[in-house]
Design goal:
Blueprint (H helix, E strand, L loop, with lengths): L6 E6 L4 E8 L3 E9 L1 H5 L6 H22 L9 E7 L3 H18 L3 E5 H7 L1 H4 L7 E6 L4 E8 L2 E7 L5 H11 L6 H9 L24 H17 L5 H27 L3 E5 L6 H13 L3 E3 L3 H4 L4 H12 L17
Parallel strand pairs: 1-4, 4-5, 6-9, 9-10
Antiparallel strand pairs: 1-2, 2-3, 6-7, 7-8
The structure holds 5'-O-[(R)-(carboxyoxy)(hydroxy)phosphoryl]adenosine and zinc ion.
Length: about 350
């Protein structure tokens, strides 16, 4: 007997990407449409929530239609709608949630609210068909830094999280301080290639009462103090050295906690996720840590690291199969916790 193909339409609008995708059985991506607003926010040096919401409203129908067309399907063939309902910018989330509820109501299609971080973790299932829980996952994005034990599909234990800035947020703030602009991560990575990662000794913070927690605000302040010091002493700032030394400090701190967790829990599989996971230096450093500890290393392609709807469709599939359904009272939850 043929296995039923569960086709999910997924919608993501938690920050500055309006995205829709069609995903079959949680692993097969039929379409993945992303409309980025980065160009609109760049001129302000960061995401402006009001602009994000308006741009989502302008684009969402178009993006969904494109995702259905690219997938060669129509709403009548969709088994469920998955939508990010948190965490994220409330006005941005509301656009996706309202749209998903409207389609669900009009076409009588089941609705599944998806946690954005769970989506990032699930991005690893797209290209690694053999990957199954349990595994250890580091989620590093613009809003989040989490070290998570993925115990089963939809079952997570958070080992550590950031106490202040997220890793991506630190990249964005440091990039702004050294005049690179938004979004900081890819720009720092590019400039760092020309710099010396050992040129400046930036601090590697440890959180005393949380062995797996992270803190990046001290590192950010150290970079700002260094820049001020150079300014006052009339010493020229070598942008590439600052970028490379900062990037190395972030990577060292992330690797140290991952290494500790691999040792303590003897995890056989490790995966990274989130926008910062597209950073080549970080990926290589984590791959080496995994090799040292005999753990298999998994990572999504960069397009599935930064915000997209395919990852939301994957997470929605596993939630749907576990019986999760949401009603028309589903609301955006900006500070939703994993
Ligand atoms: O996952 P994401 O697209 O959105 C959130 O859920 O936050 O992550 C965006 C973050 C931004 O802070 C961006 O600067 C960072 O990911 N990022 C990077 C790179 N590409 C994006 N950070 C470091 N290196 C990169 N190549
Ligand atoms: Zn994200």
């Amino acid at each position: 007997m043929a296995v039923k193909r569960i086709k999910i339409l997924a919608i993501e609008s938690s920050c500055d990407e309006t995205a829709a995708a069609v995903v079959v059985n949680g692993r097969e991506i039929l379409s993945n449409v992303i409309s980025s607003q980065i160009a609109f926010h760049t001129q302000y040096g960061g995401v402006v929530p009001e602009i994000a919401s308006r741009k989502h409203i302008e684009k969402i129908n178009q993006v969904i239609e494109q995702a259905l067309t690219d997938a060669g399907t129509k709403l009548g063939e969709i088994d469920a709608i998955g939508v990010t309902y948190g965490p994220g910018l409330v006005g941005a989330l509301l656009v996706g949630v309202a749209e998903a509820k409207a389609i669900s109501f009009a076409k009588n299609i089941p609705l599944v609210g998806v946690h954005h971080i769970e989506g990032h973790i699930c991005a690893n299932y797209i290209e690694n068909k053999e990957l199954e829980p349990p595994f250890l996952c580091l989620v590093v994005s613009g809003g989040h830094t989490h070290l998570v034990k993925v115990l089963d599909y939809g079952v997570y234990e958070v080992l550590g999280r950031t106490r202040d800035d997220a890793a991506g947020e630190a990249f964005d703030k440091v990039a702004r301080a050294i005049g690179l602009g938004y979004p900081g991560g890819p720009k720092i990575e590019k400039v760092a290639k020309e710099g010396n990662p050992y040129a400046i000794a930036f601090p590697r913070a440890k959180v005393a009462d949380g062995p797996y927690d992270f803190s990046f605000s001290g590192l950010k302040s150290a970079v700002l103090n260094y820049l001020n010091g150079c300014n006052m002493k009339g010493i020229p700032v070598v942008q590439a050295d600052v970028a490379a030394s900062f990037q190395k400090a972030v990577s060292d701190v992330l690797c140290a906690n991952v290494e500790k967790a691999l040792e303590e829990f003897g995890a056989e599989k490790f995966a990274i996720a989130g926008g910062v996971a597209s950073n080549g230096t970080l990926r290589e450093a984590l791959r080496e840590v995994c090799e040292k500890h005999g753990a298999a290393f998994y990572s999504p392609s960069p397009i599935f690291c930064t915000d997209n709807a395919a990852m939301i469709g994957v997470a929605a599939y596993y939630d749907f199969m576990a019986g999760k359904r949401d009603g028309l009272d589903l609301n955006a939850v900006p500070n939703l916790r994993l």
